[in-house]
Amino acid sequence: MKQKFAICLIFALLLTFLCACNGDSAEPEEGTSFESGNGGEPENNNTPVVGEGSGGDDMGISQTGWTEAVPAKYTQAAAEQGDVVRLDYESEDYVRNGAAITKTAYVYTPYGYDENDTETRYNILYLMHGWGGHAGEYFDFTATKNMFDNLIANGDIPPIIIVSATFYNENSSTDFSSSIEEFRAFHQDFENHLMPAVEGRFHTYAASTSSEDLKASRDHRAFGGFSLGSVTTWLQFCYDYDYIYYFLPMSGSCWYYGTYGDFRFKDNVDFIEQLVKNENLDERGYFIYHAVGTEDAVKSQSIGMADEILSRDIFTPEHYVFYQKDGGYHDFNAVQEYLYNALPLFFRDAE
Fold first, then answer.
1. What's the CA gap between 180 and 48, in Å, rounded?
2. Cα dihedral 39/163/338/159 (nearest 10)
3. Most buried residue among 56, 64, 208, 296 by CB atoms closer than 10 A?
4. Integer Cα distance of 149 and 106 in angstroms
5. Where are the domains of the chain?
């Protein structure tokens, strides 16, 4: 008994020492996905930073570089403002027993959207929150909603429908391990319930909510997310490349293999590279705008993922770019800047 107690005491002291050295806990603190400088992963000051301004596509976009700050006028209320509405939809509890549940998303429609106008069609962007977040979170920040309005009003992006969804439901726990289970199952909710519910009501390029018509309109669909929402975005690429063309992972890597702290960059990039080859995605097209801040507490996983991707010739600037916010933290100010820089690059080739 004394020997067992001594072993436990030594282990506890060792764990305390390691945490003190890293300056953070082994698991992120709950509910801090948008908090400045707090993301849970120990800072890795030795993480290599990918090269600045390397490569470029036929539109003159460098494959790596730095984001530009959002102009102050873009965060002010626009003269022409879009609307945000709540959408409740029926889904299933894919993590537990498949029981019928009701989920919620919030939908932004641009200024001038007319539900009776069935001729005008809109590109659509789905956005996912981080750990402990909720549906509609992207519209909780007035400056970000103003930025969407101003990007459209100034002609930087075409009028667009934006959906702020959630991987949680009424039965979900929001602790970290449960959150991982929820976002791993989210692609099923997206395919079978969320996408049909949204695009059956709002005028996107999908001719109907059949799987065939949703796939046929993939060029007009984007998905992005922050923190655990970024991990969700990578999984959307792995599962839903047939439905989505544009991807915006913000501060996070792919966890198709591995999990938090076991990121398995090579295995995940091997999988994505093989997926691109097997599904002829070079020809069909896809575009990933990957972003992170230089002061982000979890930047090492994004940089590790980017380094691995950029080492493969198959991921050209036409398909993948990696941009960093100088001085950016793990917070919503950084997210706003990533959106400002990425959205004008989306839907450029959509017809």
1. 27
2. -170
3. 296
4. 16
5. 55-345
Which letter, b or e, does each residue of 171-185 get, where b requires 16 or more Cβ atoms within 10 Å of its Cβ?
ebeeebeebbebbbb
* pLDDT tens profile 42-52: 333 333 344 44
CATH superfamily of 55-345: Alpha/Beta hydrolase fold, catalytic domain (3.40.50.1820)
DSSP code of residue 86 = E
Would you state the structure tokens that stand for residue 286, as one six-digit string? 């896809």
* 8 A C-beta contact, residue 48 and residue 299: no
Q: Would you say 214 and 233 are in contact if contact means Cβ atoms under 8 Å apart?
A: no
Q: What is the largest CA-CA distance in the chain?
A: 78
pLDDT < 50: residue spans in the chain: 1-53
Interior angle at CA 221, CA 220 and CA 227, nearest 5: 150
Q: Whole-model pTM?
A: 0.86
Q: Is 264 helix (H, G, I), strand (E, B) or coil?
A: coil
The SS3 assignment for 47 reads: coil
pLDDT at 311: 98
Angle at CA 203, nearest 5°, toward 197 and 208?
Answer: 60
Query: Count of CB atoms within 10 A of residue 147's CB?
Result: 24
The per-residue DSSP string of 115-175 comes to TT--S--BEEEEEE--TT--TTHHHHSHHHHHHHHHHHHTTSS--EEEEEE-S--TT---S
Q: How would you write 325-339 as a 3-class SS string?
A: ECCCCCCHHHHHHHH
Residue 300 and residue 51: Cα distance in Å, rounded? 15
